[in-house]
Amino acid sequence: MEAEASNGNGNGNGCSNDHDIIRWFDTISTNVATVQRETLRQILELNRGVEYLKKWFGDKDLDIREMDACEMESLYTCLVPLVSHEDLEPFIQRIADGDTSPILTQHPITTLSLSSGTTEGRQKFIPFTRHSSKTTLQIFRLAAAYRSRVYPTRSKGRILEFIYSSKRFKTRGGLMAGTATTHYFASEEFRIKQEKTKLFTCSPHEVISNGDYKQTTYCHLLLGLFFQKEVECITSTFAYSIVQAFSSFEEQWEDICKDIKEGNVSSKITWPKMRKAVLDIIEPNPILASRIEAICEGLQGSDWFGLVPKLWPNAKYVYSIMTGSMQHYLKKLRHYCGSLPLVSAEYGSTESWIGVNLDPSLEPEKVTFAVMPTFSYFEFIPLYRQDQYSGSGSVDFIEDDPVPLSQVKVGQEYEIVLTTFTGLYRYRLGDVVEVSGFHNETPKLKFICRRKLLLVVNIDKNTEKDLQLVVEKGSQLLSKHRAELVDFTSHAKLTHQPGHYVIYWEIKGKVEERVLCECCREMDASFVDPGYVVSRRTNSIGPLELCIVERGTFKRILDYFIGNGAALSQFKTPRCTNDRTLLKILDLYTVKRFRSTAYG
């Protein structure tokens, strides 16, 4: 099935290869029950006899190839338990330490990916194989084919990609470790993607792989403007990176114009290989520099509104992950992009790609993702929200037994469970999704939240999505006073009784204290979780606390994560944290505190 997709091409010339890869997806998204059983069969055949599976199958010499597909699926889900990363961690650690026996996969694992670490406060090792890069190439080309139907691009144009590698390192056992994006950018598939889609990144490998995100961002911007008329679209892994880049541009545009005028690179770019790679590309262009200077001088007067279409007039869209914790940045991104379309990128995780955006014209808030039924074997745990305020605060949903991909229902929320080609078996991903419809027979998913990101003090349970809605409502008052919310996070403070929620805001602009008091009260009153409302009324949860932090505090948090091995391409501000170092940074740079007057 993968071979059929390998001809896919994402350029806007209407070539047959676009039709080929779309036709391939239409084929595999029909009769998904059969496709999924075949995917499971391939995984079990590939990894037959590995230590982890023998632990559950025992000494049974199962002939997976000859076994009835339904019987095989039933036997697998009956014998192999649901697990979290914590359950698999001892096996993965043995691999990292150099054990070459077939523990999780028959083929030796030589590379490990690092998760971002922003959900649970620490990075996790995830097996990474050639299959990981191949599926990345496959989904990118499929998505490009669908985008080209709506937003055709010129062949051999350029992409301004704000992409960043982190430093890779060797584990104790000699395995290469780094973020999944870093592995992909260094892979053959990344080069092939550019050739097949006929769109080429503005920046050479030496810029992408530098490891210093500030220097890399500067060079991305410099080269993006040098190739101004050739840029067809602007992308990054996460929307945060694009906002971060243009925020940086507001402060550095004069230096960039000087470099374009002189065909030089600023002295702030200190890494020799990167300097040489950029200098090999650019040449003096005083006319272009003067044009950009004039545009920027005009943009300053409008607070940089419409920066993107003015500086890159041929760009067709901006493309990035914009769901979940990235939704907060949409307001600022729309400010920079004006009327230019925002296209939400594909849905995936370090563990596996999950779904593709088939309707690029949809606003990011409405986007859904059609599941790729050949990438992993998928199960879904039905989740039901607790309406009553009884039970433990650690239980966020009531669960039912997992169901296969072919049996999900529209309107139901689920947690995703993966069985992958890379050695994860019935692995709970921790993402909560809702089925919003189907493409042929494969479900279209709407991302709801990360399951472990919870604010809990007592019998209350508020998810990342709940927090996002509350912060949006509370921050609406800021725009009336010509201020904006730059970023936010939260913490359930339990050191004093009664415990209470703390929400940290970084604000751009001056706001009177009475307005911030009202923002605080509005957020406290906007949580609708019954457990929270009852607990506030009985004072078993204290008044919400709003902490205003200095400008630049969230960049310090970014620097902390990158200093611990994360890449900017993978960074997501944690919306709820118990990380002691993060809380220390937040409290150290808090300049004002307010307590809610809601509930008297």
UniProtKB/TrEMBL annotation:
Residues 465-580 form the GH3 C-terminal domain. Coiled coil: none annotated. Keywords: Ligase. The keyword Ligase applies. Residues 370-450 form the GH3 middle domain. InterPro entries: GH3, GH3_C, GH3_M. Pfam families: GH3 (PF03321), GH3_C (PF23572), GH3_M (PF23571). Belongs to the IAA-amido conjugating enzyme family. This is Jasmonic acid-amido synthetase JAR1-like. It comes from Gossypium arboreum (Tree cotton).
